């Protein structure tokens, strides 16, 4: 049962004060409301209140200037910070100033009541490692959408920990940017940030890259080499595209995570390590585990805090902010200031962005460099996006399997399928139609791989032979039979 308490509310918006007063009083809390920071501070200094809910921007003082005084005077008093600014830096500053929780406006009232209940139920002792907000005002992450607000709040909680984080997301969503933010605004910010892309290193050199090697360890090792673990000592090691790590290196990495030490290639003396691990992948590691390509025990060691970055199509409302940000960067690099017409922005918000934020950034930089007009028209945007879609629809056979996972390919197909009906919907029975379209090439490929042997194909697919036969009849699959020698 949630304990009742005395709650102090400070917000310049009378409507929000009224809503909070009514909602909190309804569940049994005693509530006092004010519109300025001075009154809030007077109440707190007098020992009133079991919890504070305050907006950041007040008429007489910014809450971030007031919070350190409250924390010093009453370190056990939980503070919930609200803000309509909704930026990554707002969430970080709230965390650094000692806030119990940060809520972007507009907030969900049920969620707020749940947070209030947890804050009043928890022991009053709060962590002592609360430092003043000394971070720069530049925003390493852009976007005010609900999806990004969830990311900001998660990151704010992770800043003062060394927990291992697994970042998942499609290519171009900004996984390394998030990893850098975790480092640069976290407790290891004075240490090095070292990144290594598993997909970009030859398989036989990955262990040497990670752990270093001794002179003479292998042909061409003419001197001792420091590995990325040693280079990242005291800081953060970012393991990008972790799904591409070969099994042998996975085994060694697991040993490091379990024992906290490693040996160089060709070395015998264990070396203690003190690094925070942040991993990232654009693949479904659980699928790789089922395929025997990724160790399940390593997955659980890395997936302590899972963090999914949404694709740009799930936060299209962030596109105007991102466009302004990228145009601003281009202007700092000497290009003329540009803006995009309302119709152009709307066209960009309708586009699915298979390359995500990276694709958007490339487009904006191209617009800034190639078009002389100050305002980019909808026609220009439409033509640019049409050209991009043409390339998207005709990828090379070599690049398609690696760059476009099956799930993403199906998702993009369905988006185009739904859009083809305009404001209407496809005919009923879509679920079975889509499944049959996937089943047909899957069964055909299995039969081709086993040269028409249905017993082996059923084993390969993991289904009963009778089930396979039934599917062959239902789907009308042409059974593949290998030619006999001499025929």
UniProtKB/TrEMBL annotation:
Subcellular location: Cytoplasm
Classification via InterPro entries: AAA+_ATPase (IPR003593), AAA_lid_NorR (IPR058031), CheY-like_superfamily (IPR011006), Homeodomain-like_sf (IPR009057), HTH_Fis (IPR002197), P-loop_NTPase (IPR027417), Sig_transdc_resp-reg_receiver (IPR001789), Sigma_54_int (IPR002078)
Response regulatory domain span: 6-120
Keywords associated with the record: Activator, ATP-binding, Cytoplasm, DNA-binding, Nitrogen fixation, Nucleotide-binding, Phosphoprotein, Repressor, Transcription, Transcription regulation, Two-component regulatory system
Domain Sigma-54 factor interaction: 141-369
Pfam families: AAA_lid_14, HTH_8, Response_reg, Sigma54_activat
Described function: Member of the two-component regulatory system NtrB/NtrC, which controls expression of the nitrogen-regulated (ntr) genes in response to nitrogen limitation. Phosphorylated NtrC binds directly to DNA and stimulates the formation of open promoter-sigma54-RNA polymerase complexes.
Positions of post-translational 4-aspartylphosphate modification: 55
Name by which UniProt lists this protein: DNA-binding transcriptional regulator NtrC
